[in-house]
Amino acid sequence: MSLKNTPQIRTGRPGLVQTTSADVDEHCAQLGGWRLTYDQISAGAFRGSFTQISLPRLQIFREVTSQQVRQYGRLDADCFSVGLAWHSGGPLSLNGTGITQDALVVSFDADIDFCTPRAFELRGMTLSTQLIEAIAGQLAIELPADLKHRMRAIAAPADALRRLRAALAAMDAVLGAPEEFLHDTTISEALQDSLLLAITDLLPDARLCDTRRSAAARKRIVAQATEMMLASSDQPLSLLDVCKAVGASRRKLSYCFQDVLGTSPVSYWRAIRLNRVRRDLKSRRDPRDGIYDIAVRHGFWHFSQFSLDYKRHFAELPSETLRRARMDASSQFRQNSFRH
């Protein structure tokens, strides 16, 4: 079986998960049980890695993705997370609003809608909402208004951000330490305390980044357009139809998409449909379906152009995706037969 797109998972140490993948769906599936969906928006071979260290009361993570990705869904229930762009190949978009790279991405038991650029690395931590509320109460810290049940961008003082970066950078030392490191309660508690202290340093002076009314209007237009596109993936639909439905000119719609998602309406729509084709090829829900059948189902009528678009987007032909799916299914069948 080819290992080109097979996720590599290493869990030799207690409390440590490390994965690498050359497929955006498989990468997403390894994200610590988070209930997210990733769509690859930019074209090219995908490479991703995810590392998570579980401490007694929180998790620290590092995620690296090579292509522009739209992430949406939810983290674990009652989860508070803080993320910081470690390295970024372009602008970020959060809930349809562009944010600066030094802004904190905070999710407080909320839905996720995050568009990341190419060559992106995110570091952060997750803990329970009960724990962050308890810490805030014990230290008489007032959490920013309008934070709960939302994903927001938060600005914080430069010195507090430096301390958070230093605490998150400790992950590198952990990964390079002997295997016994995470068995040492004193060391793991010290790492956890440094992370919690870094968060408490941020909270008193943290403030919500400006969410302008115009940004909300742009996001609303894009949300209406994308909903229409996704609902009509197997039906003829023109850009003019979309413009009429959302009440925006082609120029305005293009501006809104570029600002919210960092791409054009046509490119986004094609990327979403290509992601759907790829998932159908991998799942092979109906073995009788051929590549052309699946392509047509998602609105690709010109097969040779579809094949070119698919290869440009995923760096492989649709026939290669289908061949690997068949090999994986055959391998799984043999394994199940051997067990029985």
UniProtKB/TrEMBL annotation:
User: Which controlled-vocabulary keywords does the entry list?
Assistant: DNA-binding, Transcription, Transcription regulation
Report if keyword Nucleotide-binding is assigned: no
Q: At the top level of its lineage, which domain of life is listed?
A: Bacteria
Known PROSITE patterns for this protein? HTH_ARAC_FAMILY_1, HTH_ARAC_FAMILY_2
Q: A Pfam family for this UniProt protein? A: HTH_18
What Gene3D superfamilies would the database entry show? Answer: Homeodomain-like
Q: For the HTH araC/xylS-type domain, which residue ranges apply?
A: 223-324
Entry-linked InterPro entries: AraC_XylS_family_regulators, Homeodomain-like_sf, HTH_AraC, HTH_AraC-typ_CS
Protein name (Swiss-Prot/TrEMBL) = Helix-turn-helix domain-containing protein
Origin species: Bradyrhizobium denitrificans
